[in-house]
Design goal:
single chain, about 20% strand, about 240 residues, Purple Acid Phosphatase, chain A, domain 2
C-alpha cells in the first residue's frame, strides 16, 4: 500500500492541491495527516473538506488545540494568537460549523496504524510529547529515545516544519516537512511517500504558486511579513 504522509498544511490549500496531484500520480491509496491543518493561512475549511472527502487518517496538532482556545475565547487569547500567528485561526473559527469543530477537537493526539503489516505510529510532535520539537540536528539521545518509545515500524512526526528521514534500526523516523509552510529555506510543499510493500520512504517537495498565497498574506496580515516571506526564502539568501 502506498501512503502519502502529510503534516502542517496550515490552511494553505494551494500547497495541498499540489501535493495531492503528485500523490495521485504516485498511485497513493491512503493519506496520513499528522496535524496542524489550520492556522497561519486562510483556506482551512477547503483543506478540511478535501482531506475528509479523501478519507484521510488524521490526528490533531497544536494549532487545532489553539483553535479550541480561540473558540473558548479566554481573556486575551485571541489578541495573542492574532499578533503572533495572523488571522488564519480567525478564518477557521468563522468557517467551520459547530459539528466540524467538534470533530476536529475530538481527533486523537496520536495513532498507531497497520498498513499491510507495517506499523505506523503517527504523532504531531515527539513520540513522548505531542508538543515536543524534534529537529534534523537533534542530539543522538533523541534518536535513541525515539527507538525506545516505538520499538519498531515507521514513526511519523510533524510540528517543526523541517523534513527528517532517520533509519534507527528497527525504527524509521520521518518528518515529512510542512505542506503549507516549510522552514528549511527551500520553497515548495513538502510531503513523504511511503510504500508498505517494501517499506520504502521518499521525501518529496512540490512546486506551486506560493506568490498568490503571499499576496493574500499581504492583504490580510500586513503586519506579519514573516507569513509570506517564509514561503519564498532560499538558503542562498542568507549565505
Amino acid at each position: 500500500m502506498r501512503a502519502a504522509i502529510l503534516s502542517d498544511i496550515h490552511g494553505n490549500f494551494a500547497a495541498l492541491e499540489a501535493v495531492l496531484r503528485a500523490a495521485r500520480e504516485a498511485s497513493v491509496e491512503v493519506i496520513i495527516n499528522a496535524g496542524d491543518c489550520v492556522g497561519y493561512y486562510y483556506h482551512p475549511h477547503q483543506v478540511y473538506r478535501k482531506l475528509k472527502s479523501l478519507g484521510a487518517i488524521s490526528i490533531r496538532g497544536n494549532h487545532e488545540d489553539m483553535l479550541r482556545d480561540w473558540v473558548e475565547d479566554r481573556e486575551g487569547v485571541r489578541e495573542r494568537i492574532r499578533g503572533k500567528y495572523g488571522s488564519g485561526l480567525e478564518v477557521a473559527a468563522e468557517e467551520f460549523s459547530p459539528e466540524e469543530m467538534n470533530e476536529i477537537f475530538q481527533m486523537p493526539e496520536e495513532r498507531t496504524l497497520s498498513l499491510d503489516g507495517s506499523t505506523v505510529h503517527v504523532c504531531h510532535g515527539a513520540p513522548w510529547d505531542p508538543g515536543g520539537y524534534v529537529y534534523p540536528d537533534a542530539p543522538d539521545e533523541f534518536k535513541s529515545r525515539i527507538a525506545r518509545e516505538v520499538p519498531e515500524g515507521l514513526v511519523v512526526m510533524g510540528h517543526t516544519h523541517y523534513p527528517i528521514h532517520w533509519d534507527l534500526g528497527k525504527v524509521v523516523a520521518v518528518n515529512p516537512g510542512s505542506v503549507g509552510q516549510p522552514r528549511d529555506r527551500k520553497p515548495g510543499a513538502c510531503w513523504a511517500l511511503f510504500d508498505s510493500n517494501n517499506d520504502a520512504l521518499e521525501l518529496r517537495r512540490e512546486s506551486y504558486d506560493y506568490e498568490s498565497v503571499i499576496r493574500e498574506c499581504e492583504q490580510r496580515d500586513p503586519g506579519l511579513p514573516f507569513l509570506g516571506e517564509v514561503l519564498r526564502r532560499r538558503k542562498e539568501a542568507v549565505e
